[in-house]
Task: structure prediction
Amino acid sequence: MARSGRLSSPGDQRESGRQQILDVIRAAESIARIDIAKATGVSPATVTAITAELLAAGLIEEIAPEITPEARRGRPRVALKIRGAAHRIAGLKVSHHVVSTVITDFVGEELASHEMPLIKGTMPVAEFCTQIRRALEFTCKKGSFTIDDLSGIGLGVAGMVDAERSFVYWSSSLEARNVDLGAALAEVLPCPIFMDNDANLVAKAEHLFGEGRTCDNFIVITIEHGVGMGIVIDGQIYRGTRGCGAEFGHTKVHLEGALCQCGQRGCLEAYVGDYALLREANISSGSERHTSVAALFGAAENGDKMAKSILDRARRMFAMGLANVVNIFDPTKIILSGARLSFDHLYSDKVIEEMRQWVVQVDAPLPEVIVHDWGDLMWAKGAAAYGIEEVTSRTVKELANASV
Amino acid sequence: MARSGRLSSPGDQRESGRQQILDVIRAAESIARIDIAKATGVSPATVTAITAELLAAGLIEEIAPEITPEARRGRPRVALKIRGAAHRIAGLKVSHHVVSTVITDFVGEELASHEMPLIKGTMPVAEFCTQIRRALEFTCKKGSFTIDDLSGIGLGVAGMVDAERSFVYWSSSLEARNVDLGAALAEVLPCPIFMDNDANLVAKAEHLFGEGRTCDNFIVITIEHGVGMGIVIDGQIYRGTRGCGAEFGHTKVHLEGALCQCGQRGCLEAYVGDYALLREANISSGSERHTSVAALFGAAENGDKMAKSILDRARRMFAMGLANVVNIFDPTKIILSGARLSFDHLYSDKVIEEMRQWVVQVDAPLPEVIVHDWGDLMWAKGAAAYGIEEVTSRTVKELANASV
Result:
């Protein structure tokens, strides 16, 4: 009982046809026109017209048909594919210590990549913009082209990002709050930039290249300096109304509990984040001697009771948070995605075991939990995929305007 | 970058056209053929063919055009509407004390309603089925027709329900777990029954008739014997993969906390449910004298410190749970829907005030929180709406099969 019919003009239909056909070609890697018509329900005549337009615009190309013995009898079918050379797209992921950059062609093939260390994790806006430009210039140089050769840039930022407005409410990478980061970056970059919360882009990368490939409803939890979440529902990133949903790290796990870096009490991050673990260790020992989670970890393994107690509680709080995610979303899969050895205590079988005890018990298999040990470059690839998507949709809009 | 094109045959397209056209007519109440074509993008010729078929099947009817002075010049347009007499649909909501039933026509106009008290809240499956049949017979009698005149029944049940399979993992209304309730009810009922978690049907009712009318992304929280949640994303009920998501009442708000009726510890329900409040009051006073939440409430208002402390904690735990929902979903609206006076402490301004303090603070307005004091009959209307939807989609499928 949907309550309203979508109004769509013939122009809208043509535009959505272009997008749909490009999506089908991208998904299939290579596909004949007649199969595009079958897959989309668009009439063969319209498919021919639209693909002619996409060929003329240089977005797709024809490839010579493979002559198989079966095919030899009929007329060989020409297949279409995305034209890699159509665009160069960059993807960046900014963490506290490094800017990871990857540049791909329009198909998504990697052309160059680079990891640029950061001295300061939290920066003024102007410096942040400078570092992004530097990272891009370095990576382009590696690929023997220049920053002016890029058609679009995808950027993953930690924190609360309104992707639609390219607006950052808060990020641990920026000193200021409520930053129109899109506008600031536009001043130093030669092409459009599309940004999102970094965990959302990990979710996108998992969906396109990783553990979420076969799955349209899953949750990605990322553990780095903070705890992030990306939600994929029906194959789409769920962002919330104001672009600041999925704040898993700031869900409260204890009424009036431990103080969080966000200023509130009882957030999950305030129990499992590295700063939280070190803070507790230093308070308990009455010193400032604990400065590394790895060392705290080592101490626990060597039988230090205090260290063990701190890590045990973190593990249990994290399991409880995961169980809450299952109780609310009931996803097919939960992917714990990240690369930090220091968070092994959160990736252990024990966490998953405890989570299983705390989810609502029904006579049906529990969601699969997968630990996926990815490097930051894979996050950057997710950002590049986002850039490809946005550049595609802009190009489709431009074609629509040109044909009006 | 969608990864697969949907395969759709001309038959599929015809079926989705029928559904789309019925949806548009239902939404518009009455609409001319040419406006259906505009609203759906379906060609006028196809609209004419499909509406002829729907008229012949008795699902829609023509209504005489109103002759306005403006319209007098052209040919008057005949409008189409859903034919109320096409089907009679029942909606039921089973709570711990009462079975609420409403019967509507195919338009959704109420024909009869009835509230049948229940002596036992938790029943064997056979008795549950008998009570459902009794409630339906009573209500049909009031409307001067019989149970055999019904085309379909929507049913809201508390607990974990896999709507697709009509399977109940657990419900406070049933003694057994893992019940194929659809099959059991089919044996005593003359027409198809469609069931869902009751909070989902409240969410549907809010979307169709209530506070969610103007809104496609909202959360409904229901407070009755337990705490329920319905999630509406992009206008659709979100059910989770196994049909047991949205278990807000069983999200953990305290590690190894209070014991819940589900057998686990630290669930929100174990702090805010009526049984939880009375249990704490009786433990604290070392007696069994507390048997009503209303009395506990009265005591708190008269200055009883213990009662006040119990209700205060419940309120704060509930606010924390709500803040977590905002932090994860970032919805446009949260609707607190229910009719129980005994839960006033959870509906207070103070809860909303505390929730506001505990959500992630960004420079954007918070979701609206609305308290909606609805009776159980409105929940039953949501169940009827679900029945109408399902009967419509079955009828569309039958037309498709008939035309193959």
